[in-house]
Design goal:
Belongs to the glutamate-gated ion channel (TC 1.A.10.1) family. The protein has 675 residues and is α/β, with parallel strands linked by helices. The chain is built from 22 helices and 20 strands.
Length: 675
Amino acid sequence: AARADLQFVLADTLAPLTRRRAVSCAAVVCDTVYLNVFDGPLFRRTAKMPFVMTVVEDREDLLSPNYYTLETLRAARKDGCNLYIILLANGYQAARLLRFGDRHRIMDTRARFIILHDFRLFHSELHYLWKRIVNVIFFKYHTQAAGTENKAWFDLTTVPFPNPIRGVLVPRRVDIWRNGKFHYNRPLFTDKTRDLRGETLSVVYLDHVPSVVVTQNNETKKIGGIESEILNTLAQKMNFIPKLYQPPNADLHKWGQKQPNGSFSGLLGEMVNGHADMALGNLQYNPYHLELTDLSIPYTSQCWTFVTPEALTDNSWKTLILPFKLYMWIAVLLVLLITGSIFYGLATYYTTLQTYKKDYKHPGRAKLGEKQEYYEDEKPVGLYLFGEIINSILYTYGMLLVVSLPKLPTGWSIRLLTGWYWLYCILLVVSYRASMTAILANPAPRVTIDTLTELVDSKVTCGGWGAETKQFFVNSLDEIGQKIGEKFVTIDDPMEAADKVAQGVYAYYDNRDFLKYISVKRKNALVMQSIDDKMENSTNVTVAVAAKTESERNLHIMSDCVVHIPISIGFHKNSPLKPLADIYTKRIVEVGLVEKWLNDAMRPIRALEVNEEEVKALMNLQKLYGAFIALGIGYGLSAIALIGEILHWNFVVKRDPKFDKYAVDLYYMNKNKKQ
């Protein structure tokens, strides 16, 4: 009779769900005791509802089910079954099934549950389950009392969510089924997360800009940031009071890692141990966190990269060659050599032509009279400028520097070439001067690391927080990522990492906004320390601080992003709050509030950021290093040439037998005639 009544109450419970088509499929887990409940009458009343049946043996341990039971539960989860009917005579067996389903997420804890009432399900060790499985109805059978006309009846109860369970779990009555009908006709499955009735939820947080920004005012802490604003919005819409707290030793453990005993520390430890309902702390939406907690839909995507040291190399000595690139300089040099050679060739040809005209006697030249004398006495003008290859190159180089020739050479071919070459020189010089002006007017170029390839090729050690970050690079499919993982060193304190970066030996990995925060914080801390030292009139200490600051390198955030990572808010594993929180979070993102809150969180940091490039047109001695270097090279080459001439005069010319120091002009005249 009890099983027949159970069949009827189950059919009456499923009938409204079938009419509304609120159930995609029902997963049934029963034993042989209640197997006959699922026969013809029940299926006729729920004909439109598909069932996935699992029959377990009485001796089966459902905390470690056999293969067929496990595959059936997986198939039900894969098919999207949102109703579980668990009819097991052994309440201890049912409890172990729920523990297994929750631990390995084989069962959808946010689905509807119909379970036979058993006091063993309400043991204190299982209270955590009823904070996750809240959409549940317990069927408690009451037999007919002896000597009375009252028939057997069912008491339908549920867990007291959102009210907390304090010591003893007392189920809350939803309805009574007697004489084939419900007494109150109340909705059995309602969304209990829409109104949490002002209950207090524990929220663990970790200070990490820009998600959570903690500002200290005397003895009070003010918590802001993007996730704090999202939390306040969720609290208002879902009607709960957040109770924020930090995990023990938050500065040391931060997000937390797995300990040798299997437990977790830090923020993740609070979530895994069930101490917190929600978590704020820039949680990355990745498999590692999803295994331990539930994450909301991502509210933003952050650029994760490295902060690297700027190189101390000063390239001011290259100022004179910076306006043009290498290939441009090669082209200019080739044009100079080729044009100088052409000038030399034309000058040689024209000189030879004049000599030929002078020496060759044309038969008709005698008739020219005075004109003949002109040809005989004519001498080439200006051709000596290009008469030798070295002089030709030098004068061609002089035109490149916009230096006019002493005389215009004879011959229209050379004159035309000179005119067009001057046009080329004017255009080239204007381009060079414009580029040089821009270089001198702007700050000196910084030598930075902006790509992963440059980071791998450098001698800088890479690092960040947490062993899972190192594993991210070690397990990368990219060869560059694996190389970074090989030299990745974890570090707990970001400010200590910033100091190492300033020393030029480290590159720290985090999101771009947080890297900007630690860069600004460190720079302003050094400024305040220097000011405090000056106020104390401690000259020695001030000088030491200034010297230390000058020797350290600036912090530079790489322009390339290593990866864009989605960021979410954390909930405890299998939290019933996640579906509705996802809906509200999606609306917050769509209306642009996240972008607004990000700007609010970063505004104070941007205000403290020192802009070193405000004065761009300031000239200093450092920018003229190139000119002094060029002048020094000229002095050096001139000195070498002078020494060479002195050596040649003393060891070559003076030792010539024909040399007479009293008739040096005759010596060179005779030498030139021989040549």
